[in-house]
Amino acid sequence: MEQQLQLDFLNSFYNNKPEHRLTKCGGPQNSADVFLLLVIKSSPENYDRREVLWKTWAKERQHKGMWIRRVFISGTSRTGFEKRRLNKLLKIENSENKDILQWDFHDSFFNLTLKQVLFLEWMDRWCPHARFLLNGDDDIFANTFNMVEYLQGQKGNDGSKHLFTGHLIQNVGPIRNRASKYYVPVQVQESERYPPYCGGGGFLLYSFAAKTIYNMSHSIELLPIDDVYMGMASNLHPTMA
User: Fold this and answer.
1) What is the pLDDT of residues 94-128, one digit of tens each?
2) For the chain, what are the domain ranges?
3) How far apart are CA 73 and CA 113, in angstroms?
4) Cβ-Cβ contacts under 8 Å for 52 (sequence gap 6 or more)
5) What are the subcellular locations of this protein (predicted)?
6) How many Cα atoms within 13 Å fall on the side-chain side of residue 149?
7) CA atoms within 13 A on the CB side of 157
8) What residues in the chain have per-residue pLDDT under 50?
9) Cβ distance 24 to 94 under 8 Å?
10) Residue 59, SS3?
């Protein structure tokens, strides 16, 4: 299955250097020090977006004594010389910020689910005790201080609950129109109804929910719509806040 790609980073990026593996979360044993881990989906060419995020809401810092950390998750873009050029630029960028996780697969809309599952595998190995995750795109704005305060106010805020918070979408199904970006053929998804899920622009996950999704990904075939797949693998029933 495709998600069995090695977690070694293309062109010696980030993850194959032991000091980088340990830096982001302080190593697996110290990863509980990370209160909120920002997991931001990005493509190699989106440097301008990442630069804005470093300087604004995705800045690594403490708030009310709680650490906010950041990783960008990416595949590869283009082919030939252009692919090599982008990878070299990404490697330079990462040498300064040490916040890019990259795998050698084509970074496209229909590979977002693969990107999510590979990140969860990395987290399970290198950052297993981070308490909460914000999973989002590189073109959103998020108030991470409000998130920290919201999560601090929850009962049992150690990340051990099976909780998934975001814009709830339910009672919808696969789009069968071939002209649509979200087209899913019957051969991929037979059911005409998706399970409830949170929209993929941004959602909060307790670490227990992230581990549950990762464990379920070993037995649930990948669906190309990543937010639907995350809802499917979480096996959660919606409640309204």
Assistant:
1) 989 899 999 999 999 999 999 999 999 999 999 99
2) 2-166+202-219
3) 12
4) none
5) Golgi apparatus membrane
6) 4
7) 14
8) 1-16, 18-19
9) no
10) coil
